[in-house]
From TrEMBL:
<dbReference type="Pfam" id="PF02138">
    <property type="entry name" value="Beach"/>
</dbReference>
<dbReference type="GO" id="GO:0005829">
    <property type="term" value="C:cytosol"/>
</dbReference>
<dbReference type="InterPro" id="IPR000409">
    <property type="entry name" value="BEACH_dom"/>
</dbReference>
<keyword id="KW-0677">Repeat</keyword>
<dbReference type="GO" id="GO:0008104">
    <property type="term" value="P:intracellular protein localization"/>
</dbReference>
<dbReference type="GO" id="GO:0016020">
    <property type="term" value="C:membrane"/>
</dbReference>
<protein>
    <submittedName>
        <fullName>NBEL1 protein</fullName>
    </submittedName>
</protein>
<dbReference type="GO" id="GO:0019901">
    <property type="term" value="F:protein kinase binding"/>
</dbReference>
<keyword id="KW-0853">WD repeat</keyword>
<dbReference type="InterPro" id="IPR036372">
    <property type="entry name" value="BEACH_dom_sf"/>
</dbReference>
<feature type="domain" description="BEACH">
    <location>
        <begin position="1"/>
        <end position="237"/>
    </location>
</feature>
<dbReference type="InterPro" id="IPR050865">
    <property type="entry name" value="BEACH_Domain"/>
</dbReference>
Length: 237
């Protein structure tokens, strides 16, 4: 599979799906759901220019430190001495992929809506914590080193999850009183379909093809544990 990918006989999307499968990740287990990278950092421009390297996320860094400002906090957390010596050191107390995160992204489509409601003891979580906007989600990642969720494959092929087609009452945001309905898209996307089309195009772009291996090293490769993981600020609790 690797050789096929290097020879560009299979797409980046297919290669990531196959890597997830080989790593034992599956759509049948929310705790081991396929994981995909955030690949863009530009969610505010009117047009998305895929020839400009500045629109892409740095794939060589874990999502928690893509914003340089977070690196200091993350290092401090790792260097914190556990007085009882019981806990292994870690940079992040949460994970880049977990069941709650999958439900968070897929809250508008069943069976995930029902699973989310069960997780929240029979009701929707408060609106401010819902997945309501792609630009706002990215901004939260940049501001908060404790939020380290990567993406799920649906961001590259499934426009329906961005629409509240079932008309669920997801509440309203506290500050702006905005009702949470369809997911707010980046300015450069004119519809959920357009977002998926452009996002998939970004995934298959020259920039991502040249740098995807750096992210794969962090998630599936040698930077997962040991000294390489420590150096890469990539140790999870």
């Amino acid at each position: 599979v690797f050789q096929k990918w290097v020879n560009r006989e299979i797409s980046n999307f297919d290669y990531l799906i196959q890597l997830n499968t080989m790593a034992g990740r599956t759509y049948n287990d929310l705790a081991q759901y396929p994981v995909f990278p955030w690949i863009l950092r530009d969610y505010t421009s009117e047009e998305l220019d895929l020839n400009n390297p500045a629109v892409f996320r740095d794939l060589s860094k874990p999502i928690g430190v893509v914003n340089e400002k977070n690196a200091k906090t993350v290092k401090e957390k790792y260097n914190f001495e556990d007085p009882l010596g019981m806990i292994d050191k870690f940079h992040y107390g949460t994970h880049y992929s977990n069941a709650a995160g999958v439900m968070h992204y897929l809250i508008r489509v069943e069976p995930f809506t029902t699973l989310h409601i069960q997780l929240q003891s029979g009701r929707f979580d408060c609106a401010d914590r819902q997945f309501h906007s792609i630009p706002a989600t990215w901004q939260a990642l940049m501001d908060n080193p404790n939020d380290v969720k990567e993406l799920i494959p649906e961001f590259f092929y499934f426009p329906e999850f961005l629409e509240n087609q079932n008309g669920f009452n997801l509440g309203q945001l506290q500050m702006s009183k905005e009702v949470v309905n369809d997911v707010v898209l980046p300015k450069w996307a004119h519809s959920p379909e357009d977002f998926i089309y452009k996002h998939r195009k970004a995934l298959e772009s020259e920039y991502v093809s040249a740098h995807l291996h750096e992210w794969i090293d962090l998630i599936f490769g040698y930077k997962q544990r040991g000294p390489a993981a420590v150096e890469a600020l990539n140790v999870f609790y």
